[in-house]
Every structure is written in C-alpha cells, then in structure tokens.
Amino acid sequence: MRDFDPEAFFPRLLKAIAETGLMVSVSFAVATVIGILLGLLLYASRRGNLLENRYIFGVLNFIINVIRPVPFLIVAIALIPLTRLVFGTGLGPLPATIPLILVASVAIGRVSESNLVAVSPGAIEAGAAMGASPARVLFTIVVPEALGPLILGLTYILVALVDATAVAGVIGGGGLGDLAMTYGYQRFDWIVVGLVVVTLILLVQMAQWFGNLLAKSVLHR
Amino acid sequence: MTTAIAFEHVSKTFTVKGRSFEALHDVNLTVERGEIFGIVGFSGAGKSTLLRTVNALERPTTGRVVVEGREISALAGKELYSARQRIGMIFQQFNLLESRNVYKNIAYPLKLAKLPDAEVVDRVEELLAFVGLSDKALSYPSQLSGGQKQRVGIARALATRPEILISDEATSALDPQTTGEVLELLKRVNEEYGITILLVTHEIDVIREIADRVAVMENGEVVESGSVYEVFSAPRTAVARRFVSSVLHHIPSADALAKIRSIHHGRLVQLHVEDRDTNHPFLSRVAREHDIDFNVVFGGVDELQGRLFGSLTVELLGADDRVDGAIDALRTTATVTAIDPAPSSLPELVEGLSAETPRQARRPEESSLPELVEGPTPPTATSLKETSRA
C-alpha cells in the first residue's frame, strides 16, 4: 500500500468530477427527452386513451421490459460497436453516454408512464366535462398534474445515473468510478476510495436536494 | 316551461370481460328549464351513469338524450366539446386541478372557450365574488377546505355561463353544515342565473332541501317520479318509502306500534295531515261534537316546499258508535287509516276513503300498509321523540 498523495489525487479528482458531470448531464438531458416522449406514447396508446393502439403499446412495453433487467455492464459492452460507429472510439466520457442514454431512457419512459397513469381520473373527467379534447386533456391536465411526482422520479433516475457512470468508468468512460477503481481499489489506496465515495455522496445529495426543491415548486400539496 | 333535458328510452349496458351488466334500463324523464331536478337512489342504482349521459361522458347503448333541443348522444368531436361547455358539472370529489391555483382552475374552461385574457380576469373575479372566495384566488386546492373546494368547483362549472348544471353527489363528501352552505349556493345559482340543475344524490335530505321534482332510481330504472311534495307525502314504491322514512319519522315502525299497543287500548287511527288540514282545529272539534276523548300517541308534521304534511297516530276513546261517528267526521277533512285493535296479530289496516289521496285510491295494492308492517325506521327512540313533539 502506497502513501496517499494529495498533489496527484486532487487534480485527478477534479478531472473525474468533470467527466462524471459530463456523462451524467448529457445522458440525463437526452434520456429525459426520449424517456418522456416514450412515457407519453406508452400512456396515450394504453387502452381507452387518446392514441389507443395495442400494437404500439405492446411493442414499446416489450422493448422496455427486455432492456431494463439487463445489467448495465452488459449493455455497455454490447453497445461498444455502436459507440465506435458514432464516436470512432469506445473510450471516454462521451462514448459512455450512449449506453447510459439507452438505459436511462427506458427507465424514464417507465417512470413517466406510471406517473401519468397515476393522475386522478376525476381531474381527467372534469377536463372532458369542461369540453377539452383528449389531446388538450393530456397536455393541459394529465402532464401538469403528473409533473411533481415525475420530477421526483427523474431525480431518482439522475442518482441512478451517477451510479451507472461508475460502471461506465470501468469500461473506459473515465469519471469518479474509474478513479476509485484504478487509483483506489486496484492500488489498495482506501483513502482514495473513501474520498471518491464521499464526493459521490455529496453529488447525489445535491442532486436529490435540487430535485426535491424543484418538485416542491410544482407540487402543491 | 320548455324542456332542458329529455331522456328517451335510455338504456346502458356495460360489458366487462364478457360479462354484461345493464346499468340503465329504459329511462324516460324530462327536466324542465329552470327547475332543480333531483335523482335519488342507493349506490349502484345507475344515477351517476344517467347523469353522465347528459354531457356524453357516457353514451346510451340505446335511446337518446336530448339537451336543449340537441341530441347530445349523437355529437362527437368539436361539436361535442362546445356542447359540453354549455353544461357545467360538479363532482363529489371536486376534481379540481391540484397543480393550478384557484384562479387558474376557474380560468381553465374560459381558456378552452378562447375568451380574451382581459375578460378572463373579470369573469374569474366575478365568479370568485359570487361563491364568496375572492380572497382565495392564489390558493391551491390542497389549502382549501372541502366546502371551499366545492365552491371553486361550482365557480368553474359556471364560468362559461352554461344553461345546465349537473351535480354528481356534490355534497356527499361534506359535513352537514357545509352541505347546507353548498346547497344554498346551488339554490342561488338556480334563482339568480336561472340555470337548470340536475343533481344526483343518495342523500334524501338534499332533495328535500332544494329540489322541485324528484325521480327515484333502483336497479337502473326510474321507479317513481313527481314533485318533491308528492313523492314525500305519498311515496308509492318501497324504495321511495325507505328514503322518505329515513328523514321523516311520523309513521310508526312495527316495533313502535307494538309498544303503543301495549300502552294504549283504545281505537287507533292514523290521520294523514296535509297542508289545508292544519288551518282549523278539526281534531278537537270532532272530539267535542262526538263526545269522545282523543290522545295523540305518535306522529309529526313536516314542512316541505312551503307546504305542511305528516301524520298523527291518534287513540280515540269512547263508545264504539260514537268513535265510528267521529271517524266518519274526520274523513271529511283528512285521510284516516284505522289500525285494527287486535294486538295479537299484525295490525291490519282499513284503507281511508278520502278522495284527497288519488295515489292511494288508484293504487290500493301499495297503500300505506307496508309502511306500518315493514316499518323501515328502526330507531324507536327517535320515533318516541316525535311522539312527545306531536
């Protein structure tokens, strides 16, 4: 076991934070857009809803159910050919966003769908009774009513993404997970592991705090 | 008066997983413009389904629903959406949008109707003042009490100046005090704006409080309808009697009658009191003229739509022929139902002959006999209180 070297460690830590931040923010932003669209499509194609279509619903539902249980490490490795195709390389934080986007999108799709489904049928009925078209009900009642819990759900996914980037790091994505593994665990430097873990906890705490704040501002309960 | 809502042979069958259930069976009703029409029934009677056919949230399987001259059950798309803006609806659970404040909840239907923003502001303020919540514009529904939520619901339902307001158990989630306030508000809606109100409820008190006419539903059918006074003073069906007796306690239950029998051994008669009967002291006059004594043992008189009605169970004491004479004399003024003195058997009734009760005369098989025999009012304590009041 070597001695802990702060002068070498802290620049690495900052770089790792930046890489993790990049992976998390890019994949979260893209996955939020894809995931919410996916959730809307799932919700709308449900029986009795606006775009009722058992085939659309069935196919989307199946894809999500297939991707979600696959361990992230397997997904990341399986997508290496795709990331090489897009970025020319499978290494680095940006290529790592491809598998992160995939898993986060399906997770957000599911979270969005369940929050949309959970909107009170009474509020929807009231909208219909006031003469709102089904599309109008979806976008001016169902979505706003689902927004508070949806933000909390997204926060949960954001935290899960921070976790997933650690795995992405192992296969060449860089970031905090990579730092903890290569400079900490593999060199038996438990101080590095500890500091990285503390950093991760702080980041997650901040994300959760921000998510709660945002949810509170739209959730009037 | 012209017709606001007409249900014509409305039937509705739901099919869930291959099993069908007939929620409505051949309902025929008309609601006149400007009236408050109540539909009462126990849960599962089909009243909410019927109400939802008025704004086509449910469509009849067969039959038609005509609202303000248009067959709403045949409309779709934009025509349906604009027709719905002419029909306000309020709900048991208020169904406000939790993500919007009170102001935005009330403005929602106005935005749907594409009212210019400046007019929206004025209209919402006017509505808030009407329901007495001007200071709550920026509150969110979760910050309001149940009664306040329903006021917002009413303001929202009235926003687009509809001709008709339909109410689905609007007071059923409220305490009695708040229920009273909301009903007062609905009365004002009806009187000040001339809006026709169709309401469904399982609370007969609501009907008694504000309705002009009432329909009683059971198993998807309308089993009885008429003015509130008619139905309350002479309910024809068992279900109507159950409802009426739950709020009016002037008719003794079988238990109460047995108790009365054990104390009072004279001839028992029941006098059905209607509005005009109470103008003069006919009971004491008849007793004096026929030289008998009388003893009021049970009963009560209620007020309904400004008219009085009720019944008194009276013990007549004296020689048989004088009592007979007195009963004949009473019959010239009131409907008299004699209760057979045999205390061992079930009380057998002699039907009153008065021409003033056409319902009873027309339908002798549904006379007041079952009321006395079945006696759906269990609380004798309440009944005895009524006795002392009478």
Describe this structure in words.
Chain A has 221 residues and is mostly helical. Chain A has helices spanning 6-44, 54-67, 72-78, 80-87, 93-117, 121-129, 134-173, 176-184, 190-218. In chain A, helix 1 (6-44) runs parallel beside helix 5 and helix 7 packs parallel to helix 8. In chain B, strand 1 (3-16) and strand 2 (19-32) form a beta hairpin. Chain B has 15 helices and 15 strands. The longest helix of chain B is centred in the middle third of the chain and has 18 residues, at 176-193. Chain B has a 6-stranded mixed beta sheet, with helices on both faces. A 5-stranded antiparallel beta sheet of chain B has the order 12-13-11-14-15. A 4-stranded antiparallel beta sheet of chain B has the order 2-1-4-5, with helices on one face. Mean pLDDT of chain B is 85; it is low at 342-390. Chains A and B meet through helix 6 and helix 7 of A and helix 2, strand 6 and helix 3 of B.
Quick summary:
The complex is a heterodimer of chains A (221) and B (390). Chain A is mainly alpha-helical and 221 residues long.
Strands of chain B, count: 15
Residue-averaged pLDDT of chain B: 85
- What is the number of strand segments of chain A? 0
Describe the sheet with the most strands of chain A: none
Helix-strand string of chain B: EEEHEEHEHHHEHEHEEHHHEHEEHEEHHH
Q: For the record, give the distance between the C-alpha atoms at the N and C termini of chain A, rounded to a whole number.
A: 53 Å
Q: Give the SSE order of chain A as H and E letters.
A: HHHHHHHHH
Give the mean pLDDT of chain A: 90
The radius of gyration of chain A is 20 Å
Total helical elements of chain A: 9
